[in-house]
Design goal:
Pfam families: BFN_dom (PF02577). The protein is 32% helix and 32% strand. The protein is built from five helices and eight strands, in the order βββααβββαβαβα. Strands 6-5-4-7-1-2-3-8 form an eight-stranded mixed beta sheet. Strand 4 and strand 5 form a beta hairpin.
Length: 184
């Protein structure tokens, strides 16, 4: 079963390696998890720029890819992190094209960078999340889906604060973790 996720953020582990953090959109209360995927510095920069809604001074590889897809009248329909094998994550891009749907093998870092730019949904196989997900204790500090302002409306600022607190707690967790801890 596939679980829809969102990009919680990008962090650095104790070895100063970049990690993209994926958080399920809809999880049962008390079952919160975050999926860390180690990525390269360039992909981390690309994801951070896209999440912030900013543009690099010159097109990055992911920007070029989006331009190529647009030129060919293709769109990213969805991204799926499909499996983990010996500590390596695998992903697929599903494209809609004039010739019909196409599924393309991709590195998760590239797939996520493209999904953020295309505003495409990101999914993770439940088995991957079960195997490599981090327990929700690091995300405690509130449920960002339940954050509301004084008028009872969703409070985006509170949700952002919760996300920042989760990332800060995750950074503390990473001080004691090694990427090899996640290898099968």
């Amino acid at each position: 079963m596939m679980i829809q996720v969102r990009v919680l953020g990008v962090a650095l582990d104790a070895a100063r390696q970049h990690i993209v953090l994926l958080k399920p959109l809809h999880e049962e209360p008390g079952v919160q998890r975050v999926l860390p995927i180690w990525i390269g510095a360039q992909e981390a920069t690309s994801i951070v720029i896209a999440v912030a809604g900013e543009q690099a001074p010159r097109p990055l590889t992911h920007d070029l890819t989006m331009t190529l897809l647009d030129t060919l009248h293709a769109q990213i329909a969805r991204v799926e992190v499909t499996r983990i094998d010996e500590g390596t994550f695998y992903a697929e891009l599903t494209l809609t094209t004039p010739a019909g749907p196409r599924v393309i093998d991709a590195r998760p870092s590239d797939a996520v960078a493209l999904a953020v730019r295309a505003d495409a949904p990101i999914f993770v196989d439940e088995e991957v999340l079960d195997e490599a997900g981090i327990p929700g204790e690091i995300a405690e500090g509130g449920d960002d889906d339940a954050a509301v302002d004084e008028a009872g409306m969703p409070d985006e600022a509170a949700a952002e604060r919760t996300d920042e607190a989760a990332v800060d707690e995750f950074k503390r967790f990473l001080d004691d973790v090694d990427p090899e801890d996640f290898q099968g």
